[in-house]
Design brief:
Layout: E1 8-10, E2 16-18, E3 43-45, E4 53-60, E5 65-71, E6 77-80, E7 86-90, E8 106-113, E9 118-127, H1 131-142, H2 150-154, H3 159-176, H4 183-189, H5 192-200, H6 205-211, E10 214-232, E11 235-250, E12 253-254, E13 261-274, E14 277-293
Parallel strand pairs: 3-5
Antiparallel strand pairs: 1-2, 1-7, 4-9, 5-8, 6-9, 7-8, 10-11, 11-12, 11-13, 13-14
Helix pairs in contact: 3-4
């Protein structure tokens, strides 16, 4: 069946440049069609609605990343990125789209690759997104790195709010790294690269666990001490000592090893104000205080 060409080289939010048909096009331009096919392990299923959701990953010239979602005829697809990556949108009948208005019911696929080398990207997507939401996203992305919207510039986070967000992350792990593998819950708490590594990338922790019939179960989860809280503009950091008792489970049984442990660590958390709320944007272990075998493994 003949395909209708659509490929975009994103330059600004909700803006794009059509790919050249000239065979002599430079390496920076997108090809007429993807140079490689998507494989099952590189496709992530997402749920799109009227709220913008974000996915991130590393696009490569020789390895595409895909996002698949269910949609209805007549819905309008919105997406944006501030990175120079190539994006193709496939309809359920495997036709390449040439319109934001979706033509049929079914499962659509967004394929992302880099015109050269590799590129870390963040892709925002939604269906029937309100105009006001689109405008907010435009303003935030097209501004300099100051995140210049009024809500971002005037918002701050307190030390206690930062601690509460870490506690929420601890409590959410049992639903993120085990059934129901709640991606939406993860998106409420995490953002940026750490969201990609844990939730949305094709090689994320969540996807690996699901693909390998595995999950984590958690016992004790505590914050033992807090220090070095700093907040500036739309970013903040804090150092905490945490205790976590976890069991790595596979096929419903504990796996005794380095992932079934009682872990006490000093961790630095980074926060960022994103889409009107504070989220965790990163964390690094500064010191491994104690790591011993979990004496009470449970699945």
């Amino acid at each position: 069946m003949k395909r209708i060409l659509i490929c975009f080289l994103f330059l600004t939010t909700f803006g794009f440049q059509a790919c050249s048909d000239d065979d002599s096009a430079s390496a920076n331009e997108c090809p007429e069609k993807p140079a490689n096919s998507l494989t099952k392990k590189n496709i992530q299923e997402v749920t799109l609605n009227s709220q913008i959701s974000k996915e991130s990953g590393i696009a490569r010239k020789n390895k595409s990343i895909g996002y698949t979602f269910d949609a209805q005829k007549g819905q309008k697809l919105t997406y944006n990125t501030d990175e120079d990556v190539c994006v193709w949108v496939y309809a359920p009948d495997n036709e390449l789209l040439n319109s934001a208005v979706l033509p049929i019911n079914g499962k659509y696929t967004i394929q992302v690759s880099s015109p050269k080398g590799s590129k870390t990207f963040e892709l925002a997507m939604g269906l029937d997104v309100a105009e006001s939401s689109s405008n907010i996203s435009n303003n935030n992305t097209n501004s300099s790195n100051s995140n210049s919207s009024d809500s971002n510039s005037s918002s701050s986070i307190t030390e206690q709010e930062a601690v509460n967000l870490i506690k929420r992350w601890q409590q959410a792990k049992v639903k993120i790294f085990a059934y129901p593998f709640d991606r939406n819950l993860g998106a409420e708490i995490l953002t940026g690269e750490i969201y990609g590594r844990n939730i949305s990338n094709y090689d994320s922790s969540m996807k690996w666990l699901k693909d390998n019939n595995s999950y984590y179960n958690y016992g004790r989860q505590e914050i033992n001490s807090v220090k070095n809280f700093n907040s500036s503009g739309n970013q903040a950091t804090i150092d905490v000592v945490t205790t976590e008792e976890r069991t790595f489970c596979k096929n419903g049984r504990p796996v005794i090893g380095q992932n079934t442990v009682l872990d006490v660590s000093r961790v630095r958390y980074n926060f960022q104000f994103d889409q009107g709320k504070w989220k965790i944007s990163g964390y690094d272990t500064l010191e491994q205080i104690q790591k011993t075998r979990n004496s009470n493994p449970s699945c």
